[in-house]
Write a structure and sequence with these properties.
The protein folds into three domains: 93 residues; 47 residues, no CATH class; 139 residues, no CATH class. Strand 1 and strand 2 form a beta hairpin. The strands form two sheets. Strands 1-2-4-3 form a four-stranded mixed sheet, with helices on one face. The chain has a two-stranded antiparallel ribbon with strand order 5-6. It has eight helices and six strands. 58% of the residues lie in helices and 15% in strands.
Length: 294
Amino acid sequence: MLKSMTAYSRISFRSDVGDFVVEIQSVNRKFLDVHTVVPKELSCFEVELKKWLAPHISRGQVTLKISVAYENTSPIIVHANIPLARQVMEAWIEIADELKISTKDFHLSLLADMDGILLYEENILEEERYLTALKGAMDLCLEKFMHMKVQEGAVLQTDVLQRAEKIRQWMMVIEEKAPYATKRYRDKLIARLEEVLPGRVENEDKILREVAVYAEKVDIAEEITRFFCHLTHFEELVNAENGHIGKTLEFVLQELGREVNTIGSKASEIEISRLVIDIKSELERIREQIQNVE
């Protein structure tokens, strides 16, 4: 079953530590690329967040956004760096004395841009509570997210299989017409030779040699057999339970393209050439769809 790379979900989740809002959005990308946008106090859980995503998504550009309104506690404990703040204040007082400025002009805002004035420490005692709440929110959002991927994938699957069946029917017509190319060439050659050398017995040997060379040149039986083999493999992959097959489908499409190109270069029949163009056009449409398959 196919899964689409493009999907979006957003949920709200209430827990005993606060209210979470989680968003997951994915777009096309050949490989897996995960971006997380989380509050600073939850950044320590980024590794866990990516681990939770990994089993569900094999490729695509995924953006995970999380916001939270806490109840009474926070995953981060904030401490004041009093010694540093004292030194900074003393330095400002020294500057004020030197410049003859009143120390009444000192405000706490002067410390706001100072690195190290506030020290952040992980709330280890409450870590498990926050991790459990975060996992609950992620699971809920992932469930909705995967449901959308499967729904979009089902639409892609139906379209791709319909196109594959159309291609199979066209190739069956090519397979039916291919053997007649040699006979038509032989009849044409006989007609030409009869015009030039009517009734000459030795013409038959020349005809047979010429027809044999031509038949080997335009023989596409092997290419047709391989094409059907690849096409069957493609359809089996599309119907398989494993949904992470986008890259494999692209490789099989490349093989189908090679075989039909060879058929087109060998075939001399107008009808076969037209069918080859139709097949190549349909393969390209399938390739565009597969680019959105995980």
